[in-house]
Amino acid sequence: MTRLTFTTRVLKPAGFLAAAGPGLSLLWRTFGSGDLGADPVKTLQVVTGLSTIVLLLVTLAITPLRRLSGWGELIRLRRMAGLWAFAYALAHALIYFIFDQSLDPGLIWSDTVEHPRIAVGFLAFLLLIPLAATSTNGMIRRLGRRWGVLHRLVYPAAALGILHYLMVQKLDLRVGIGYVAVFAVLMLLRLWSRGRSGVREAPATPR
Amino acid sequence: MLIRRAPDIRPAEITPEPLYLGRRAFLSGLAAAGVALTLGDRRALAQGLAREGIARGDDTLTPYDVVTTYNNFYEFGTGKDDPAANAKGFVTRPWKVRIEGEIAKPGDYDFDDLVRPAQQVERVYRHRCVEAWSMVVPWLGFPLKDLIARLQPTSRAKFVEFTTLHDPARMPGQKSRLFPWPYVEGLRLDEALHPLTLMVTGLYGKPLPPQNGAPLRLVVPWKYGFKGGKSIVRIRFVETQPANTWQVIAPDEYGFYANVNPAVPHPRWSQARERRLGEFYKRPTLPFNGYADEVAGLYRGMDLVQNF
After folding, report:
1. Would you call A38 and B278 a contact, using CB atoms and an 8 Å cutoff?
2. How many Å lie between the alpha carbon of A92 and the closest alpha carbon of chain B?
């Protein structure tokens, strides 16, 4: 088996299942076992939110991993990871709109302007929308070089997502600081490789 | 001194829990059958054993499993399910409570000596957490005012301070330095003397589980839940307002009074609505958690935005 077929036939389906795992588990716990705990909406929010952050960090880890390992085929996993991150962010936002704010635009607006943690999370979600919308091969072709520029929005989106998580915590920031650390390492690796090569690498075309 | 023994029959044994929980269905059955009930009858029946409970008509009891597995009790960990897991085997006997300060009868009291003379009552209270979730709990306990009357505070006693056990060997959460242990809470003396203020020793007719603050905790139903100190080992009567732990940690977010107030948002979230545990949609939060008729008078003339 070549590295390419291993990546597309083994790693990619395995990654797909791993990314779907938290969502499938929530669906089963909601409609099957009814075991979402004492505060079901909070369970849904925590799991979808954390899944978003983890998958965004996975997405951001692919480029440094390719450079460090020389395993260029990993690029084939990046779009999938990014779209799963968006799917969880969308679920997270919808649960908030529906169950926290009863789909009332006035309540959503006042909660957003009055509470920075909501505004930060909302902004992170909004930044992800154009990225998901331009993730098709057709859009990549059409946008050309601008695609790479647009998709740098993933950096502020991930940073704001992690900030949103930190702002939601009441007291214990240890997990959130862990996310900050991973994000910082991934960003430093980018700076380091840019400094080393002297030229900016053209964004690879995802498949 | 009158020595009253704990009842031989626990209230929950008198009415089986399923019947107890189904009493509203029984009532609506009666109503449907055209049985006329006076308001008083209805209240007494609807509240079953909790004759003194003042839960609203549309409040249903939060299941025992939820009440005992969804807890904020950082002494046993910061996760909601940590206390139920980490408090297993927590030994609550013997238990001494030090009573001191501006009081005629200070001393180290044994738990049984404190509790036994008091008339045990079961009360159904709404419990509103500052985190905007709520539950409805049938507590078992006695009014704090009965205890205070026995202890005879001096005229200098203006506040009551409650301190939780500090013993990291038994309370593993206290090994964390996130918190300035021990946990301290306080009430104004008139709040402590209010008939709704309860010293709690049980719930659902059973002894209080350790994750809920065994063996002795405070419940003040018109205030956010954090005002109710758990596993109390010291009650001090003082002249000046005690520094309660959450106010010490984050003075802009948590005040001394902490009265449930939908009009005063927490800096990071609204308090206008709350999620009753088990429900998907939020419901409006009531001023003083729905006990305004009983307690609003305590704060007449006070700026409740300043004194949040």
Report:
1. yes
2. 14
